Hints:
By secondary structure, this protein is an alpha/beta fold. The chain has twelve helices and 15 strands.
Amino acid sequence: MKGPRTILVTGSAGLIGSEAIRHFAADGFETVGIDNDMRKQFFGEEASTAKTRDELLARVLNYEHHEIDIRDAAAVNELFQKHGRGLAAIVHTAAQPSHDWAARDPQMDFTVNANGTLNLLEAARNFCLETPFVFTSTNKVYGDTPNYLPLRELELRWEIEPGHEYEPGISENMSIDQTKHSLFGASKVATDVLVQEYGRYFGMPTACFRGGCLTGPAHAGTELHGFLSYLMKCAVSGRPYRVFGYKGKQVRDNIHSFDLVAAFAAFVRAPRIGEVYNIGGSRHCHCSMLEAIALCEEISGRKLIWNYVEDNRVGDHIWWISDVRKFREHYPAWNFRYGLREILEEIHTAVVDAPASA
């Protein structure tokens, strides 16, 4: 096959990064990963991505791993200088991903999310200007604006008023201004705008994928990050789970890592300049916290031990469903493969099979 045949993935041992490595390797690409297991530093030993890193090294042919901190501009530049002209795409998934953790150490959060991304963008501009750059952004760039939508309280969930323009899901036309983002959301806004600007200012093929809940069996879920994965861990192990605010009726859409990476691949095949896409489970795959608890109990055959905390997390959404119609208009061949039950059944199998669950 002609043209560059290497994909560089940051956060390559994480949920989305490892899915990207496997996906592109299966398509015949050589893969280069950057991951220094900062997830362990953020969330503790149970969140370590070392096991996934080792599995990639053992099972993925022609996988090259680098324990690089993306805040290290010299190391990033050295890697891009080596691979730059041979890169078919850059898939950037490395991040500090938690609201709560960001408030504990705002400088660390910002330097990982914003400065680290700036290093990658500069390296791409200098060594492979025309290479598609995919950024895993977040719906938290919209702050708490979704919480001011007209919502109705139903028995098990909140739901938007029928007929509202966002009834199919929240689109990219929602403002990111005049809203409380959380410090994590603020660092991701800075990063999101940087990625857009490198696209629009320098003509680079960049895309920000503003995800809802990203999930799958490879997720190293913890209380602070990884909603469905951690929920199933608690159901299987008997560990108590805490529900934070909104009566447990808060709604999330959930997209399997396979479906998200398939969207990345569609963009890589036909890149555009400075694009922004809301991406998530949409109306195809969504649930409230109470609905997720019931489904985890049904699949695991165990009663979840959980308690309710009245205070919601700062910047948390009451209701979020992504409108993916813009992406589908640009890439009509893309579609969902996984629904909610399939996602949770895969997570359940992964949790039961993991040594820590024994």
